[in-house]
Amino acid sequence: MIKKTFNRLYYAVSYWRIDDSLDSDKEKDSAILFNIYIFLLSVFFLIQSAFNIFFIGIYSNALLLFCISLFYCFCFLFLRDILMNRYCIILSFIALTFLVTFYSCYYGIKSGTFLYYFPLLLAVYLFFSSENDRLLIIFLTALILSNIYISAFSNFEIFDHNEKYESFGNYLLIVNISSVLILMFVNSYYFIQKREKYYITLYRNLYRKQQIENLSNELKRLKENLNKEAFSEETLKELIESVQLSDMIFIEKFNTAFPDFFEKLNAISSNSLNISDRKMCAMLKLGFTSKQIAIYTNSSIKSVEGKIYRLRKKLNLSSDVDSRVWFSAI
């Protein structure tokens, strides 16, 4: 239950305002990563401002954190495409580095605010390419590390320390440790997704070859799943082979085999289904798994699951409904 809830939240945040207009996997990965970080930043700044207001009261420092939280929330909802500009991301890293430095000294070392330096340092290598942005990575890494060492050397007293936080330091430390752990966990989850994509890409040709060699088994599976004697082996074979051709050819062949399928879906869907949506619906109708769809469509499993998630939203499917079972009944 917890895992399912986390996955739903993760995909809802990751694929916010991401559609098929982003052609390459690289563009989609960049947009997903940006969505995750900008959402987390808005949440963490909101938590920090709430802590300040609750324990200290409403004053300039708390209001600043709250305004920053609103800014990132607004960016997540409306300005993502603008702020994904390379220079905006660089400015964000610089601004966040100095913010961490200021609040580390303002709250004091016991608050644990300096811990945010480390996920910030890791994020540099996620957002920029070590091949194309080597000098930029060196600059940002040097900037963050210099702030860490300068702050540590001064015992986090570059700026005036606010003594009001002494009695609440332990609570703030817990908040900061929890926030940093969440950031590290999300980073790890993202790396797992990237690794999965790498192996799928590496072995995709082998999988496809195996699928073609085992075409007879695939035909047998389809016959059992569809449970229709009307389909000849030749019809099913053409249908499977057309999956790897153009989307329109596959959809035309599928529509010939299931003439009422798309009409029923259009009646159910709250939004019109594009060609990519129709192909996904057709493959789910044929009982393909996410892994098989990824192989046949030359995509990553993460990309396929994202498309299925958006498709389920269009069709208003509840979380407890299995996609393949639901489509097989249409």
Structure, briefly:
With 330 residues, the chain is an all-alpha fold. Helix content is 74%, strand content 0%. The mean pLDDT is 76.
Overall geometric form? elongated
Major sheet summary line = none
Unreliable sequence segments: none
The average pLDDT is: 76
Topology:
Layout: H1 2-14, H2 25-55, H3 60-83, H4 86-107, H5 117-127, H6 134-153, H7 169-213, H8 215-226, H9 233-242, H10 247-257, H11 261-268, H12 275-285, H13 290-296, H14 301-314, H15 323-328
Helix pairs in contact: 2-3, 2-7, 4-5, 4-6, 5-6, 8-9, 9-10, 10-12, 13-14
Provide structural commentary.
With 330 residues, this protein is an all-alpha fold. The chain is 74% helix and 0% strand. The protein is built from 15 helices and no strands. Helix 4 runs antiparallel to helix 5. The protein starts with a helix and ends with a helix.
Name a few traits of the molecule.
elongated, single chain, 15 helices, mainly alpha
